[in-house]
What does this fold into?
Amino acid sequence: MRGPAAYDCAYPSRIHLPYVFTLLLFCTCIASINTQGYEETRRFGTSQRLNPAPVYPDAAEYVDNSQYPDYVAPVQNSWSIAHQPQMNVNAAINKLNYTPVSVPGWPDSHTKLGQVSAVSIDCSGHVVVFHRASRTWNPSTFTNDNRYWNTNEQPIALPTIAVLNSSTGQLIDQWGQNMFFMPHGLTVDSKNNVWVTDVALHQVMKFPSGEKETPSLTLGVRFTPGNDNHHFCKPTGVAVMESGDFFVSDGYCNARVIKYSAAGKRILQWGRNSFHGVAQVVAKPYSFAIPHALVLAEDKGLLCAADRENGRVQCFNCSDGTFVIQFHSPVIGSRLFSVAYSPKKGGQLYVVNGPDYTSRPIRGFVIDIATKKILSQFGPNNKDFSNPHDIAISKDGKEIYVVELEPYKIHKFVEPNVEPVKVNEVSKPTPKSVEESNLNKSSANANASTIAPVKPTATVEGLSLVSTSWAGWAGVAGGVAGGLGAVLLLLLGGAALLLRARHRGGTPLLPEKESLVL
It folds into this structure.
């Protein structure tokens, strides 16, 4: 048995140095863990591998996320208005001008449609809509494993795709009968090909220009949801590049975006499910709570996604899927259903929000990409929508169309005194921040310049913008936390050693068999 002097003096001096190194190692490990979490997300988001390893939610999230029909308000414990940054929303909205303005009496009153889920504009300037005729999506439409409730049911017998004259609103053509079970997304590309998604079939289809019966490309397995390389789970939308490469938002269950070649060969994917039922002011980049619609801003090298239940627009690099910028505001609220883009005035996003548990107005909003401000608002006769679901804008930026699920409506808006869209007129402005730098880098990759933004007469400040620079501080925060933990342990250890030192030459603080080992 060691004597008191040996125990109280020699033993502490002998163990001091090894434990310092142990504590330092502990600090380093904590910093490494925090940094690794971000790096893993970044690599997933920017991976260019053919089949990058996906990250999917657990079973509970998978079911909960998928059970939202596309017109109901969210559960109250999801992303909440109450957790958004505090501001006088009504006052901010009242500051906004109403533009574009609605066109009364459009479309023609004889046009009869069902739930209108999507809208696009073809190469002739005609308005093309996707609707569900007599069928509706309700909480019993899908089973708990995301399968359509009755696969023995016949497809919708009536036409589901309608083509309208943009000026008169009269019906020009209609087709799509006996093909679809639950229409959702529709896009007309620059070659006049029509792309659709059917959430009941879990498929994406491409119809060549003029073809109305047989798709030239079909992706996904009929009536079979999944999350591998060959399946979708309720895909929501498609965006097509000039090159023919295209993107699919997948969707209600899988919370991912997938890029394909023009031939339908898978190139890359990104996305994580953030639908946890936990309030978040701004969700992390690459995470989705239903990627509900897609739009391309090719002059800026961006693909933008309407992250529906996170109430934001996320924009990514078209080439490699790298996160570039996001737009989010308490004025818009916690739900954002769709997004459209026009290159006019340096680039503008048009978005529509949706109903929630607050009295927040259900409107369309115009966002300036460069200044990050909400420029204006719009609605039917300067009033609220009921259940807006999709939005499209003409190439010249003069006409905007919004479709609703209930009531079954199409709304037309026009921008007064819109100048023709011109590119390469003015060189890009010098970046003033890291966020603007990221945006301009993406634009440079697209080999296109932007027009200097025009300052609006009334705007709303405070639109949050987050770039990849935020997460670089995650590792720093982890290191600081680890360092504080190590310091705390050192202080506790030092206090224990001092207590023992005070008992030098006497009886140890505890019997030797119960002595503390530091």
Q: What stands out?
A: The mean pLDDT is 76. The two ends are 19 Å apart (CA to CA). DSSP finds five helices and 27 strands in the chain. Residues 128 and 412 are 13 Å apart (CA to CA).
